[in-house]
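Please think about what follows:
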Amino acid sequence: MGGQAETAETTGAYCPHCHLLIERDVRAPWPARPVRCAHCQLLIGAGRSRTEPAPRPGAKGTAAGVFSRRAKRHGDENGHPPRSPDDVLEGIRAVAGTRGERPERLLMVDYQQLAVVDPEIPPLSDVFAAFGSWKSARRRAAELV
C-alpha cells in the first residue's frame, strides 16, 4: 500500500501529494516526523514519502492544480515584493532553457521544482499576479523569444 520497509541504502523522498522530489539521499521510511513539502506546502506524515514519483498519468497535472490554487489563494507568504512581469517572463525562459523545452511547452510542475530552490526564479505567486494564469505567462514568454 505504498509503505516502505526500513533499509540501509539511501533513496530520494518524493511528496505523496505533488509527486516532486523533496530530499535526496534519505533513509526510508522518511520523514521521521511530519514535515511540509517545499513545493505544495502540504503536510507529509511520518514515513509517508514515496521512493519514486507517481507513475500514473496525470500526476503532474494534479500537482499543477495544487500549485496554482495555492499561488492564487495565498500569494507570496515570504513577504517579498512581487517581481515584474519582465522578470517572470525571463524566469520562465530560463527554466525552459535548462530543461531543453520551448517556453510554451514548459510544465508548471517543472517550473515550480526549480523556483523553490533558486531565488532568482520568481515564485508561482508572481507568475499568477503578473499574468493571471500559467498558460498566459508561457504564451507571452514564447512570443518574445
